[in-house]
């Protein structure tokens, strides 16, 4: 039996460029791209923001962990995970078995990117302060699951995709 698995899984904090880089990678490789945030929204018929507000973060994390497990065993293209997916221990255990690209980014770089898109429930109010907290707490988790890390700070999304292709 052949198992289906993503060619590469992209992880990193909000504002690290996961979605853009995953799309570029998929186009270069001629494969499909999937994003677990979109999977959760499609499955629930609700935006992530509404799930956070109406049902709470723990419910979102359970839905996310299930979406990640499903995508890891069924998707054979590029898979981008939501920035907080690595919080879940079961998800980290599953990722040990995959090629995982970690997009590292400075606080300033991430803040500049998410500043353009403020729909993220965990970043309401003091965006920079919330981001710093998330990034400090999660950096070890991204590193734990990473097969390799790309420092995205001086690179365009195209150059990040090049680095990932070279590492795979
Ligand atoms: C989250 C990141 C978001 C989304 C949700 C929670 C987080 O994904 O899953 O808002 O905890 O960092 P992006 O990293 O794609 O913004």
UniProtKB/TrEMBL annotation:
Protein's UniProt name: Shikimate kinase
> PROSITE patterns per the record?
SHIKIMATE_KINASE (PS01128)
Pathway field: Metabolic intermediate biosynthesis; chorismate biosynthesis; chorismate from D-erythrose 4-phosphate and phosphoenolpyruvate: step 5/7
Catalysed transformations (reactions): shikimate + ATP = 3-phosphoshikimate + ADP + H(+)
Assembly notes: Monomer.
Q: What is the organism lineage in this UniProt record?
A: Bacteria, Bacillati, Actinomycetota, Actinomycetes, Propionibacteriales
Q: Which domain of life is it from?
A: Bacteria
Q: Which gene encodes it?
A: aroK_1
Q: Which InterPro entries match?
A: AAA+_ATPase, P-loop_NTPase, Shikimate/glucono_kinase, Shikimate_kinase/TSH1, Shikimate_kinase_CS
Q: EC no.?
A: 2.7.1.71
**Role played:** Catalyzes the specific phosphorylation of the 3-hydroxyl group of shikimic acid using ATP as a cosubstrate.
**What enzyme class is recorded for this protein?**
transferase
The family assignment reads:
Belongs to the shikimate kinase family.
